């Protein structure tokens, strides 16, 4: 008894299910949606994927996604050139930009140190960051990595590497989310919340 569809529809389901965050059932739903969609909508999807693969690249300066290098953030003369916020992925740049609080530059590492996945410091854009420190007048590096094991390992590595270079190294404050309950917070989150406490 066959557990898969035949031909093109199965190949489409397999293609969608290979994407991060999409399981087999989600992939099947998307594939059947595309199958039933008007030809124009399906064609727009194909053209969008083709266009992004042809036009989008990584900024030669910071590693963010862009169509022309340097990216709009690096090229903006109004940005504070004395501060670089180090993030894991280009999507993290947009998360910070949405706050409208940060006006400095960015540096995208392209991941985090993860020995289990064979990702070491040499696999990340750390050398490019060090090069920027030699040419730019950087006074502060803000390490804004994900608060997980890989992010912590990368933060520790960067801190040890950057501290001797006469540049201030800071990290994002972390702690309890707004609306969260103490009962559900883990020990690390609670200890960070206590360390980062401030006067009311």
From TrEMBL:
Matches recorded under CDD domains: TOPRIM_recR
Keyword Kinase: no
Alphabetical keyword list: DNA damage, DNA recombination, DNA repair, Metal-binding, Zinc, Zinc-finger
Chain ranges of the Toprim domain: 82-177
Zinc finger C4-type: from-to: 59-74
GO molecular function: DNA binding; zinc ion binding
UniProt-listed SMART domains: TOPRIM
Keyword Ubl conjugation among UniProt keywords: no
GO biological process: DNA recombination; DNA repair
Role according to the record: May play a role in DNA repair. It seems to be involved in an RecBC-independent recombinational process of DNA repair. It may act with RecF and RecO.
Family: Belongs to the RecR family.
PANTHER family the UniProt entry points to: RECOMBINATION PROTEIN RECR (PTHR30446)
Protein known as: Recombination protein RecR
């Amino acid at each position: 008894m066959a557990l898969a569809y035949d031909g093109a529809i199965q190949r489409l389901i397999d293609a969608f299910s290979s994407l991060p965050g999409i399981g087999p059932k989600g992939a099947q739903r998307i594939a059947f949606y595309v199958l039933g969609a008007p030809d124009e909508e399906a064609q727009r999807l194909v053209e969008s994927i083709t266009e992004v693969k042809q036009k989008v690249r990584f900024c030669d300066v910071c590693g963010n996604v862009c169509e022309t290098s340097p990216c709009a953030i690096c090229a903006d003369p109004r940005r504070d050139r004395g501060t670089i916020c180090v993030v894991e992925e280009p999507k993290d740049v947009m998360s910070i930009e949405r706050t409208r609080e940060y006006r400095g530059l960015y540096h995208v590492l392209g991941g985090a140190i993860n020995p289990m996945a064979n990702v070491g410091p040499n696999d990340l854009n750390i050398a490019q960051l060090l090069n920027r420190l030699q040419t730019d007048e950087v006074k502060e590096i803000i390490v804004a990595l994900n608060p997980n094991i890989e992010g912590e390992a990368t933060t520790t590595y960067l801190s040890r590497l950057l501290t001797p270079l006469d540049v201030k190294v800071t990290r994002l404050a972390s702690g309890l989310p707004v609306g969260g309950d103490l009962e559900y917070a883990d020990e690390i989150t609670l200890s960070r919340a206590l360390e980062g406490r401030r006067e009311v």
